[in-house]
Amino acid sequence: MRRRSISTATATATALAVLFSSAALVAGAAGTAAADSAKVLPVKSVVDVVVDSVHRRVFVSDPVSGKIVATDYAGKVVATVAHLPGVQGLALSGDSRQLYAAVPGDDSIVSVETRSVTQTARYPIGEGTDPQHLAVVGDKIWFGYGGDIGLLDISGAGAGAEPVVTLGRQHAESTMVGAPLLKSAPGAPDTLVAVDTRSSSGVLETYSIAGDTLTRTALGKSGSSTADAEITPDGGRLVTATGGNALLAWKTSDLTQSGKYTSSYGANSVAVAPGGTLAVGAFAWYDPDVFVYRSGSATSVRQYDFPNTGGHSGGDTLVPGGLAWETSGGRLFAVSVNSGDAFSLRTMDAPAKALPKLTVSAPAKATRGKSLKVSGKLTATLAFPAGTEVSVVRTDAESPKGKSLGRKKVAGNGSYSFNDTPYSGGRVTYKVSYAGGKDHAGASASDKVDVSRSRATLSLDKNNKIYDYDNTVNFTAKLGKTYKNRTVKLYADPAGDGKGRKLVKTGKVNGSGKISVKVKLTRDTTVTAVYDGDSRTSSASAKTWVGTRAKVSTTVVGHYKTGRLGSQTYYHFKKSKEPRFDTRMNSYQGRKQRMTVEYQYRGDWYSMGDMYFDLDPSGLSKVWYTVERTVGERLRMRSAYINGGSGDTVNSTAYGSWKYFTFTR
Q1: Order of all β-strands in the sheet with 620-624
Q2: Exposure winner among 18, 250, 422, 662, fewest CB in 10 A?
Q3: Beta strand extents in 154-274 (DSSP E only)
């Protein structure tokens, strides 16, 4: 169970607990679109939204915080008018110079100068009136309060006369329960429509205006509770959001039903642009939130499904009465709320234009130099005019910034196709674009083709050869036939340094297709040659592994002389002296040296055993010969690095030279 705080036009905030499934958010039907931009608002509730197209401002009333927030069209806050307890309905003057707001918390109507967004006047309308909704007709401000209609006449305020408040203007037989929602239109300044948003039957009333007098001309019922209503610019029709999944249209002259518009279930908002374009909204977690209808059509041209910006399942939802148009009808504004009670102003550009769906289909693979076919379809909720075209751009290795293939005509059913012969191999992209028009937004789509290329050959010498430590070796790569690119990169990767391969040379091959690089070897090393390919030749690489023997040397310490015994030079030790053998290797963490000792018997050598000894960080190992010593005994020793046995595998196995020694008295 989670709770969302939902603002309504008749209360500061209403908590609604809704049990919902954990199913994933489902995207809208074909033709839906996400709002073009969104900005979080610093409010705790939202009751009304008004757009000032002259100063490019959006005004939002926040009754919980008691303030009006003014933003630019992108939702950036430009000013705030505070100290308006329970502020409710908003209305603009005809010239957009003043914004009027109903403030039930102190039974007043305030006036805000729209250019500077500063409060200019506060008009008390009577203790306990609790005004809720406003409709501006010339210099007269009609307001709904307590089941009745009142009038604030400020026509003489500029000349020093006091504003005049008149209460009880509604028809005596009216059955409205709460403060009526009032609607008027520039095209019908003598008509006022009142809608009861509190009753379950949805009472509707039309009044004619004569000075400060209202005469009821029609009475009707929507049949269920009404969340929002709006009158068309000419004053001829009233559209009501009745809480189901249908919005009803009524003739204002007699309040007979004259049309029907479909939304998601839970219709809660309606707004009409000056040109007659209709936007209807609904409280919908998993369905489209806003539907746009062009004037005279009962089929939506555009749908918007808000994303989920909260921490729970289900998308953001539209607040009741949360839709408002820019005067030109070029932008539609909506206020949504997420599961964390964060409100956002969403700006939708060109919502009355159909959102096309454009597809592109190209073969997954193709042969270079041979014709291929690309096809697709352009569809929308509104038909495209005859002669509609799409533009095509091909991007490949030879035209990385794209090459225009011209414009292609779209058939009556929206299909198009064209043939093309790609001469560049590798990844080829066909991007198809529709620029948009009077009735349609733009669209683009693309598809990729893997076009074949000639196979490049690349080789590298010296593979599996073993070299001594510190040897400088010349490696040579050979590149076969290619189209244009003749550059090869050479990398060296010594074992055990953890740095990966390092680029050691980049250059063009010579006339024989060869390029060489010298590498000094201190460890087993992998050398890699890389050719990146070109528009008609595939990439290629070649690897060579070469071994590098460890550097091993031993110094004999403690002898008193050297001398030859037979054909070999021996180190001579006194029997009382323990020989010491200092072995040095190229260092590596955890490395050991293996020492082998042999003795001679009747001309042959026999092992006395092997043993591993640690090397210090500099690569030095000092070992004393502590075995029982016999005068005249001939021995020899040597140290070795054994790949895998000496604690690591970064060098190839290497043996030091034999050191011969004997003992005397």
Answers
A1: 552-557, 580-585, 620-624
A2: 18
A3: 164-166, 181-185, 188-195, 203-210, 213-221, 228-231, 237-241, 246-251, 257-262, 267-272
Q: Which helix (H) or strand (E) holds 402?
A: none
Going by DSSP bridges, is the β-strand pair 443-451/365-366 parallel, antiparallel, or unpaired?
A: parallel
- Domain that includes residue 478, residue range: 458-548
CATH code for position 384: 2.60.40.730
Decide if 119 contacts 112 (C-beta within 8 A). Answer: yes
- Do 419 and 447 meet the contact criterion of CB atoms below 8 Å apart? no
**What sign results for the dihedral spanned by CA atoms 7, 10, 11, 14?**
negative
In whole angstroms, give the CA distance from residue 147 to residue 241. 20
> Which of 548, 573, 599 is the endpoint of a domain?
548
Round to whole Å and give the CA distance between 122 and 629.
116
Considering the chain, what is the average pLDDT of its residues?
A: 91
Same domain, 410 and 531: no
Whether residue 501 sits in one domain with residue 413: no
Going by C-beta distance under 8 Å and a sequence separation of 6 or more, which residues neighbour residue 567? none
- 530 and 496 within one domain: yes
* pLDDT tens digits along 609-642: 999 999 999 999 999 999 999 999 999 999 999 9
In 232-285, beta strands by DSSP E: 237-241, 246-251, 257-262, 267-272, 278-282
- Domain of 579, CATH number, reads 2.60.40
- Shared-domain flag, residues 167 and 247: yes
* Pair (444, 466) in one structural domain: no
Domains contained in the chain, number: 4
User: What backbone phi and psi angles, to 5 degrees, belong to 548?
Assistant: -130, 115
DSSP letter for 354, please: B
Q: Is the pLDDT of residue 22 over 90?
A: no
Residues 589 and 531 placed together within one structural domain of the fold:
no
Query: Is the same domain home to 324 and 397?
Result: no
The CA–CA distances, whole Å, from 501 to 386, 492, 505, 532 equal: 59, 5, 12, 16
| SS3 call for 572 | strand
Residues 71 and 152 in one domain: yes
Q: Which residues contact 399 (CB under 8 A, 6 or more apart)?
A: 424
Burial readout 344-382 (b: 16 or more C-beta within 10 A, e: otherwise): bbbbbebbbbbbbebbbebeeebebeeebebbbbbbbbb
Tokens of 155: 């026509």
Task: In whole angstroms, give the CA distance from residue 405 to residue 560.
Answer: 91
**553's tokens:** 């040397």
pLDDT tens for residues 536-574? 999 999 999 999 999 999 999 999 999 999 999 999 999
Choose between 167 and 23: higher pLDDT: 167
Query: What is the band of 155 on the pLDDT scale with cuts at 50, 70, 90?
Result: confident
Query: By CB neighbour count within 10 A (0-12 exposed, 13-18 middle, 19+ buried), where does 571 fall?
Result: buried
β-bridge partners, 472: 520
Final residue of a structural domain among 488, 523, 548 = 548
Q: Residue 10 — pLDDT band, cuts 50, 70, 90?
A: very low
Query: Residue 622 in contact with residue 642, Cβ under 8 Å?
Result: no
651/546 Cα distance (integer angstroms): 10
